[in-house]
Amino acid sequence: xxxxxxxxxxxxxxxxxxxxxxxxxxxxxxxxxxxxxxxxxxxxxxxxxxxxxxxxxxxxxxxxxxxxxxxxxxxxxxxxxxxxxxxxxxxxxxxxxxxxxxxxxxxxxxxxxxxxxxxxxxxxxxxxxxxxxxxxxxxxxxxxxxxxxxxxxxxxxxxxxxxxxxxxxxxxxxxxxxxxxxxxxxxxxxxxxxxxxxxxxxxxxxxxxxxxxxxxxxxxxxxxxxxxxxxxxxxxxxxxxxxxxxxxxxxxxxxxxxxxxxxxxxxxxxxxxxxxxxxxxxxxxxxxxxxxxxxxxxxxxxxxxxxxxxxxxxxxxxxxxxxxxxxxxxxxxxxxxxxxxxxxxxxxxxxxxxxxxxxxxxxxxxxxxxxxxxxxxxxxxxxxxxxxxxxxxxxxxxxxxxxxxxxxxxxxxxxxxxxxxxxxxxxxxxxxxxxxxxxxxxxxxxxxxxxxxxxxxxxxxxxxxxxxxxxxxxxxxxxxxxxxxxxxxxxxxxxxxxxxxxxxxxxxxxxxxxxxxxxxxxxxxxxxxxxxxxxxxxxxxxxxxxxxxxxxxxxxxxxxxxxxxxxxxxxxxxxxxxxxxxxxxxxxxxxxxxxxxxxxxxxxxxxxxxxxxxxxxxxxxxxxxxxxxxxxxxxxxxxxxxxxxxxxxxxxxxxxxxxxxxxxxxxxxxxxxxxxxxxxxxxxxxxxxxxxxxxxxxxxx
Length: 701
Prior knowledge:
Helix content is 33%, strand content 14%. The protein is an alpha+beta fold. It has an 8-stranded mixed sheet with strand order 1-4-3-2-5-8-7-6. A 5-stranded antiparallel sheet has the order 11-19-20-12-21. A hairpin with a 7-residue loop joins strand 6 (252-253) and strand 7.
């Protein structure tokens, strides 16, 4: 009998020797050459399977070298020899929940290891074809290796009117569908589209099919939504033939109906999801502010843009705001598989660090005025006003020296909300009410406290209000705002508070993934961390022209950040809404205005801290601030003319610094000082217009 080391060496050699040998013949050769008996293989399989299950459910990691080797053998075997007609299913933990959800700790948020690519086989799989020269040269490249053998053709495809489905990596699939129902069934059975879960307790991303205008018409859909009702509701009426076809075939639509982002599904049977996401370009599925220029691109280029976004962020599931919220849930799933001690069965259980499966009502001061907890209680105690800055300095506070400077230079902080989300501790449970509590900067919540006694230089905005005016009495503030008053050396004595006992850095994996996506996409556009400040400014000036497709991905990532944070406090929509009624967004565990307030409060405090440090180091005071943009008077037409640098040439810590990572600054725009003062005298904010357009609208808010 061969030793275990010799056994596995011979098995690996055979697996690598003839990769296309049929599995039955290979099994016979393995048993014959390595001396593995049927019983021994069965025992190893059983032991390894249990070990993998334990590992995936967090109970223990397989430590035995023998189990490790068998696990490696079986995984390699499954990857190299899929069953005919289907891609092999990856080993997954017991299904925790049918619904998608968020994750736990930073350790648990590691992405699922990516398996080797497996070529599609069997008659059920539609073969990828090279793009014809008459179609689109960009699609002529060979398909790149798939990240997951179950999804050999990537996460999505863009379908044109000729039945060509353009996927990522330049592949083009033949799609024979002539109806929406046929398209859904082809997508699930033959396309090989989809994406693996982002967290081991989550779920795989459903395949996305993007329809061009010609494809929509071919499938029986209107090229555009016409008529008052359809434009108002942004979906087809229930009696439309396509909707009736879908229902007749026993498929379902979500409550959003058949709109620009239509989700068609059947109830889960066992562990198999049956769901396809459609995005209809001619129905404005891709908003121009979030996806600049994408709808005008060729199908292959659209697939490239959306494919990069899907790989770095998430497969789009709606607007960038919706995708931002879905990403939180995908990285922090609400449930995980736990074993029932009485029955021994695996059942869904709460996933620590997540927001759970049930929505939680906010404290009255954290809610919106129309929320039931406000209306039903007759709450009149005031509300949190944690919003981004919109402040302009009083013109009378401008010095003669400032007025004689030739330029006004705008600095913009890269994804300021994303930077604020890093290592941010937020509440995970329902709020508890306290009277006259002692302030603790480590407890997230809302505090009623008087900060009107805090003195701030009038040439700077107050850190406690969005408009920069000084508070006049007690008001509700988020923990970071109150903690900053303590940082400035002032005593704080809260009157009451709504605090949360369970806390955690819920947004950490969301921050990490989006930060990497932002930095990597900027690097694709030639903007890297290694550049000097002067080189950085030059690279940023031309980065949008370097690659319009990657520039669109960058815009979508930024919109995902702002939109995702905004969705945490989605307001009611529609004329028929009545104050005090619950609206659909309230049924999401991710309707959390307190988390949104925490992010914005920290972002605003970070901005004020930099403004104060800049005044100390340079003697310069801002003219105006708008969210993450600040305008300074400057002796030159570049930030290099006034930003603080040490004698060594390195940027001084504490102030604004140029760079491509979240929280660092870039040039927003340059105008004359006369232009800025003229706007200030008219009551306008120079930070809104310094780059020649409306900065807020350009950022997708």
